[in-house]
Amino acid sequence: MAVKKIVLHAGAGQLCGLIRAAEFRHRHSEHRGNGARPVFEGNSRAKVDIHGAVDAFSPVDITGEVNVLSAALYTDLALNFRNMELSIFNPYSGKFAGYNITKGKLTTELHYKVEGRKLDAQHHITVDQLEFGDKTASKDAVSLPIKLAVALLKDRHGVINLDIPVSGTLDDPTFRLGPIIWKVFVNILEKAVYRTVCLARRLFGGGPDCSSSIFGRERRTWILPPQTRFEQWSRR
After folding, report:
1. Ranges of H-type helices in the chain
2. Which of 67, 83, 141, 216 has its CB surrounded by the most CB atoms within 10 Å?
């Protein structure tokens, strides 16, 4: 059987996810596009060209090729989300960061290539003007000064740029893309705070021994130099 083209027009969908009981669900405003040459044969590849928006003001496009019968055998897709309101991710932020988001925009350039069940994923993430609001009572929140860490990652314009590559095999039952990306992101935050704490120690004395890790085995504990200008600034 062969289908020449599939066309989507004025459709709607949802962004949704479920990570350890943090449910996220958000509605797309509109999407349109087509899949050209989706011939249903074992090695066939369909071209994908989908464009839409989240909440009408955040453009989304998905382009590339995919094996329609088995995406695990071959997928080569680029997914771009622009100018998304970060507050829609509060179910995740409140649970894992420990704070709700009150302000900020997200732009992503994602590329996923799967060939022979091996994944190569590239994530370029831009976060603009991120601001946290109320602290939550989440027991799953990361144990580090999240507001300080985010402030250290921002450039002088209030923008954070991150590149997160991930690779692995789909045959590994423990391989989960979402938790890996989150772990890499947390490591970036930890390094930002760790380097700043070590700098403060060199400037003012006291604090952790920077010749070794300041993290405990079971729970990371952040100790800032006592009675210093750095400590006063970090608590703001």
Report:
1. 90-92, 146-153, 177-204, 229-234
2. 67
Provide the CA 2 distance to its chain's centre, in angstroms.
37
Q: CB within 8 A of 132, min separation 6: which ones?
A: 93, 97, 99, 100, 101, 102, 146, 147, 150
> Which residues are CB-contacts of 198 (< 8 A; sequence separation ≥ 6)?
207, 208, 210
Two tokens, residue 7: 């066309």
Considering the entire predicted model, what is its pTM?
0.71
pLDDT digits (tens, 9 = 90+) for 130-145: 999 999 999 988 888 8
Instruction: Count CA within 13 A, CB hemisphere, residue 162.
Output: 24
Does residue 104 contact residue 131 with C-beta atoms inside 8 Å?
yes
Phi and psi at residue 38, in whole multiples of 5°? -80, 70
> Which is it for strands 46-54 and 22-36: parallel, antiparallel or unpaired?
antiparallel
Q: What is the pLDDT of residues 218-233, one digit of tens each?
A: 334 444 444 333 444 4
Count, residues in the chain: 236
Single-letter amino acid code for the residue at 173: P
33: left (phi over 0), alpha (psi -120 to 50) or beta: left
For the chain, what are the domain ranges? 5-234
d(CA 135, CA 212) in angstroms, rounded, equals 31
- Gap between the Cα atoms of 84 and 52, Å rounded: 12
